[in-house]
Design goal:
Helix content is 66%, strand content 0%. By secondary structure, it is mainly alpha-helical. Helix 3 packs across helix 7 (122-141) and helix 4 crosses helix 7 (122-141). The longest helix has 22 residues, at 23-44.
């Protein structure tokens, strides 16, 4: 019989240099994974991509108007993280690793317009923020976000988790019936 064990200890021991991951970082990433699972299931019909995320935001906005107040703190955070004050992208922006497909490149351009302050439409800006989280999801699940560097990602996941909970709360308040 397989016995329960300390997975986090195993992960830390997996790395020969004795990586010391913060419990908070692991918790934030775990919570992001669970929140993204809920978002992908209920907002994107179990198939998140640029188009399904866009449709989900349009659907949310039809039920409850998306406002700048809802997302401005998130825009401010990601703007500082990915863009200079003069509106040019920082090196970290390329770390989001948008795919080369046309829809992904259009999303990358939209995110740049949001974070550089050129795009003022709250609905489009919420889409941009969720595109960033979609890249977090893909980079995390496909190995681009290195486990040994998760301690430096804690704030990203705090912001991401906050946005996902706000979106899911709006959905639940307006139309979502959560099955048990």
């Amino acid at each position: 019989m397989i016995q329960p064990f300390d997975e986090l200890k195993w992960i830390m021991n997996f790395f020969s240099n004795g990586v010391n991951l913060k419990t908070e970082g692991i918790d934030r990433v775990r919570n992001f994974s669970l929140l993204w699972n809920l978002f992908e299931k209920y907002a994107c019909d179990k198939k998140a991509d640029i188009n399904s995320i866009s449709s989900a935001v349009e659907n949310i906005n039809q039920r409850e108007k998306v406002t700048s107040k809802l997302i401005q703190d998130h825009i401010d955070y990601f703007s500082k993280r990915y863009f200079n004050k003069d509106g040019t992208a920082k090196e970290q922006y390329e770390g989001l690793k948008f795919r080369q497909r046309q829809t992904d490149q259009a999303a990358k351009q939209q995110v740049a317009q949001t974070l550089s302050g050129q795009l003022k439409n709250p609905v489009e800006n919420l889409k941009s923020l969720l595109f960033i989280l979609y890249r977090f999801r893909n980079n995390l699940f496909h190995g681009e976000k290195e486990v040994i560097r998760l301690n430096g990602q804690i704030e990203n996941f705090i912001i991401a988790n906050d946005l996902l909970t706000k979106v899911l709360t709006i959905m639940k308040r307006n139309h979502l019936i959560v099955d048990n």
